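seq:
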Amino acid sequence: MTLRCVLVVLALAGATFAGPEVTELKVDVVSVPEGCSVKSKHGDMLTMHYTGTLDDGHKFDSSYDRDQPFTFQIGVGQVIKGWDQGLLDMCVGEKRKLTIPSSLGYGERGAGNVIPPHATLHFDVELINIGDSPPTTNVFKEIDADKDNMLSREEVSDYLKKQMVPADGAEMSEDVKQMLESHDKLVEEIFQHEDKDKNGFISHEEFSGPKHDEL
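struct:
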């Protein structure tokens, strides 16, 4: 399963709206390795291990369970704002606990049946690597199956389903099953956020995810 692409799509669905119980982002440093000379900054490629839970302790996702760290570019909107802000100035090997208000997470809409509306998110994170190479994946092109430079609901739905299906016949987690069951709702949330002119399609200009080829 291409976890990075799944989270990119979920980030598109997670337009940030202020909820009634908005609090500030809280960053607790758990441990820092000795001799840290390089810290994460805007534009870096970060490789993270993480576990995400809700206020009630329910675990909604974990890279540790898959033994598959997550790589993304920080500061460019590929992930929720709580990550873009809470993972700066971090050393390789450092561990943190992030408490992210809904206004910096998935807002008043939540994300399918996995993240409820107005949810405060808790993440245990560990920075595995810092790189300086920008992502090469053009997500817009991957979704645009008919290459007409417009994304239809069917294309977004098909792409979302493909990203959630585990590779090599691996067993599907309960959280992913829930996401698949509610993927129609996720598609509608993406269109609510991305289809600015409400014509039923997401144009290249409207799309806020990774869409540029490398020069």
